[in-house]
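Fold in tokens:
===
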Amino acid sequence: MGKRKRKKRKKRKRQPRPALTARTADRHVLYQQAVQAPDFEVELAAKFFKRRVGRKAQSLREDFCGTALLCAEWVKSDPERTATGVDIDADVLDWGRAHNIDPLGDDAARVTLVGGDVREAHEGRHDVLMALNYSYFCFKDRQTLRGYFEAVKRHLADDGLFFLDLFGGWESQQELEEERELDGFSYVWDQASFNPITADFLGHIHFRFPDGSELKKAFTYDWRLWTIPELRELLAEAGFGHVEVLWEDEDEDGEGTGTYRRRKRVGNDPGFNAYLLASVDVPPRTQAKRDERRREGERAHKAA
């Protein structure tokens, strides 16, 4: 039998989307569109976990999860994966549940949202734990941040990996505004103040719209700007025996390529974003490569 002919449907005229304004826009939707890249970060975590550990990462915990967009993307990426999101803001968790988790349908059962402090004991140990968008910068002293890292260690699987991002460079200490045009609105990153004595940083996100209206201070951040050496030291004090710095490659024009590699030395970049990857022990495949290089060196020395 031949293929059945499908009845032609009349094409519907697409209705133009109403222009966004400060009154009609949802700040969480705007934030997700302007700031987050969950598909990229799921791929990053899965790739490095497989390379370092040698198996597929199954369980994720997203600390400071906010709207839990990363949790949703994680479970969508594989039918066997589970995710846990922890955040202290019940209202934002409720928004995330309604807009990001419930729309997953049956897959929503593989996501657990927990209202509470990320430093408290919560059920489960996880292959991957991520604290992104510089969220842990809210912990401003060494004792508090080290305590958080100790809590992370308790919630990692034996071969688990902890990913955290940070920004830095001398531009991060300047008072400035950066504006970026997006679909139907502008995203504004406002570095309002920096105190070099305490490293206290105050920043805001504003959103601007074509009609001239503005969502001013849609989000405000009262942080300490931590440096890579400080973070590596605190992770070591908290019991992490292996910490790598993942730095973004650049093209010939100095623009980021989206590819991150382990680096031990880089140029003095005025403004950078980087990831730290931490584990309690040296990851199995990383240790295996080290052992092989050591054996090759020994063989070369004997041959000489």
